[in-house]
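--- STAGE predict ---
source: upstream dedup step, 1 unique chain passed
mode: sequence only
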Amino acid sequence: MSLRKNALEILQKTSRTFYIPIGRLPEGLLEAVSSAYLCMRAIDEIEDHPDLDSATKAKLLRTISINLQSGVANSKIEDFAAGLEKHALVLPEVTYRVGEWALLPDPSIAPRIWDATAAMADRMAYWAEINWKIENKSDLDCYTFSVAGAVGLLLSDLWAWYDGTQTDRSCAIGFGRGLQAVNILRNHLEDLDRGVNFFPPGWTAEDMQAYARYNLSLADTYTKSLPKGPALNFCQIPLTLAHGTLDVLALGRAKLSRSEVIALVHKVTK
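--- STAGE serialize ---
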């Protein structure tokens, strides 16, 4: 089985939101965006792991960061996964195969993905060490940039690399932040159960919804400015699903139904 096909299978297992838009991308860009998503999902699984303590999470995240920063043109799969062996039995497949995802894209863009993932892993390690303590809106902005706003910037770099598409990078940050804020709302009770609260002190669900809607408005601006092509086709789907999820959360529901997801995706892609 080719690495590309296998990556798409792992992607389908880990994200119903991103599997569809990534699978529709043209060759070259598909591998690059798949690599970015899977590398970042690899470290995200460490950050959210229910059975690892914060110190271990920080150590593993920094290990991956160092491996990626050490990447060179002839790096091998095992070079990027070095240091994960002791935890192979508890880490999910998407994490211990990070070396494969790192080597999936064209060599001309792979180092940009390594750089973005390494920086994110370092930031995640910091947040793990302070138990994701959010004291105010500035902390929330910092966290949502660390794990999502920066992804918007990386996507902008991937669009420019592929076909020269130029974007508003401030709005790109809002794109990432908006999607992350919706995730925070959707996972709020689950996060509280594990002792983490991403809501600043005194914030209600309505406050976080307002935060999400503001950033999704930037995401709307970002997406509407894109020319017809793969970047636009990609961004429309997760943005539409984020808006839909926020709407049902505001009504007191936990998430979109499968039929609602299918209908929203069809509306965007028809």
